[in-house]
Amino acid sequence: MRTDVDLRHHGDAEVAPGLVDLAVNVRPGTPPAWLTELLRESVADLAAYPDASRARKAVARRHGRSPDEALPTAGAAEAFVLLARVLAPRRAVVVHPQFTEPEAALRAAGHEVTRVILDEDFRLGAVPEDADLVMIGNPTNPTSVLHPAETIAGLARPGRTLVVDEAFMDCAPGEPESLASGRLARASTGTPGEPERLAAARASGTVTGTPGCDRIPGLIVIRSLTKTWGLAGLRVGYVLGEPEMIARLAEAQPLWSVSVPALVAMEACVGARALAEAEEWARGLAVERERLTRALRGLGAYVVPGARASFLCVRIPGGRGVRALLRERGYAVRRGDTFPGLGPDWLRVAVRDATTNDAFLAALRSTSFGHRSLPEGEPMDLIAETVAAIRPLDEAAMKAAREHQDRLTKPRGALGVLEDLSVRLAGIARDCPPPLPEPAAVAVFAADHGVHAQGVTPWPQEVTAQMVQNFLAGGAVVNAFARQVGAGVSVIDVGVKADLPPAPGLVRRKVAPGTADMTQGPAMTPEQVRRAVETGIEVARELVAAGNRCLLAGDMGIANTTASAALIAAFTGREVESVTGYGTGIDEATHARKIEVVRAALTRARDELGGAEDPLAVLAQVGGLEHAAISGFLLGAAAERVPVVLDGVIAGAAALVAAAIAPAARDHWVAGHRSAEPGHTAALRYLELDPLVDLELRLGEGTGALLALPLVCGAVRVLHEVATFDAAGVSDKA
């Protein structure tokens, strides 16, 4: 077997005595004690030949399938070998970069292999139409990219075998994109229609079943339990597929290839206890993975965005030399150039605990890599890297969405702005139809303001901390609205004056205990602004990594409408009087005072800025810590291609800052509503964003965005579930 890369090179070859192992993706500290005890007990049964029936039933039950649709294997590697023996593809396609064993097994069996190399962001594209075997990983090893289930299922064709390697799917909390059930689950059943491509596929036999839960013939899913449960030396995996295919694989499988201990472990690791433990681990992994990602990016490394597995794919200039230097310092990382599509600058780094990750980062810094710069000579930073990842909307996906809207069983344009919204959401996702914007999460950024001392509101400053506690207790309007639409609520302390104790739902990222009085000097230092913006980027990434498909921007901070008015006047050029509202319901005298305070702050700021137009500098002069964080939040979501529903005037002011930093990000935001605050209208007009609703709200918290969320969901659901004229047998107009 000769190829241009060593397909048999695996991470264990990087490991040696005395090296900290960041090359192999087995979860540290495994197997757990309870599993070790079961394995120890299984030794008593080694005299008997293995009987896979119990494990087979347990695996089937785990995925809602019948036992004849499951086959235990000696790890995923045996599954690939069995497929190579059983199948006789005319054109086998392996999507790369991915785990090399599928291609190695095919070539060893004498099959020719066509490689499809993913584009620079490693998102799935087209494969040759004549391929009758397609193999792909999800999440993909080594990129850690998790492809949408609908995108994977879209590769199915009549007469094609579609093999999905889900060895790392349990790294994603809730396994949102798994196809292990054999069906493409959709969020609604009993609907009168469905997407044309699914209807046509059902007519041609590509998918079968009733609308709402589509069977995918030809689908084979391979799962491995070795990485999560520390069973690499035991080899534990299984195959899921149609009964006929499973029977063929079983016939080709050597007798008793899966040992008694492996079968015992398999049954245990698909049980309720293990699934709960794996889910808890996956959630913790997501947090530590994001922290390591931030640190690596801060050093100037390129980390493939949207990582969802237990490792990161990292590109470092001079990566081969850096890997050697890391070995000298006691760390083994996986070389990337044995994965087709990656070069010598690529490394795969396993995500470990915080202590191990920090020690690794220190070792990486000691290689002098931490002092590297971008080719242009500018130091790499999180904000610059995030802005660089933001792309214009995908024109092909938008065109497909427009054409699909025109074929649906309704008059063209009958859904008004929702049709335009669905087209834009397709452009954000670069796919038609785009993923349903659910689950959704609202991030409430909380901070205090030094300008409160100027008497711009009758509310005492301690109300900020008190309302945060109310959010955490579930007693605020944002909580009620979030429960109504099934959204999660996270409260991020970026600048509350009071010290808040740890609590579920509270993310403590305090940059400073509030801002300074913007009438007396800059509200924030340049360093505080950057840290707050970076915090918002990090929160967006963490929420996306947790599986959220839509984000909502909320806020809490007494006197924050005063800072918002200053920002809006600064960025739009509007007169202070026209953008300064009554906030929480102040009287006329306080309103007049508020206008004078905003004017004074802007006059001082303009003198200090001296005509400079750096949006971060303007933000530092008259903004708030929550404005800075929301600006980063909007940029981070745009870089992840996830839409954000904006709330009121605080989010609108923050959006002006973010749009000044990265104009292309604006297309990724949806104006949920129009606030009663006049500054919000000015901000939306400047951003050229049309609000979905106008309910004269002036509460903040994310409440208006939550009320608009069902409209956003509805815009996408139309593309997924409404029948076309052809599919429904309805005549179009002449």
Summarize the structure.
The protein has 734 residues and is of the alpha/beta class. The protein is built from 27 helices and 22 strands. The protein starts with 19 loop residues before the first strand and ends in a 6-residue tail after the last helix.
Overview of the structural elements:
- This protein has 734 residues and is α/β, with parallel strands linked by helices.
- The protein folds into three domains: 243 residues, Aspartate Aminotransferase, domain 2, CATH 3.40.640.10; 112 residues, Aspartate Aminotransferase, domain 1; 274 residues, Nicotinate-nucleotide-dimethylbenzimidazole phosphoribosyltransferase (CobT), large domain (Rossmann fold, 3-Layer(aba) Sandwich), CATH 3.40.50.10210.
- The strands form five sheets. Strands 2-10-9-6-5-3-4 form a seven-stranded mixed beta sheet, with helices on both faces. Strands 17-16-15-18-19-20 form a six-stranded parallel beta sheet, sandwiched between helices.
* Total number of domains: 3
* Total number of strands: 22
The CATH homologous superfamily name of the largest domain equals: Nicotinate-nucleotide-dimethylbenzimidazole phosphoribosyltransferase (CobT), large domain
Shape: globular
Query: What Rg is obtained from the alpha carbons, in whole angstroms?
Result: 27 Å
Arithmetic mean of pLDDT: 91
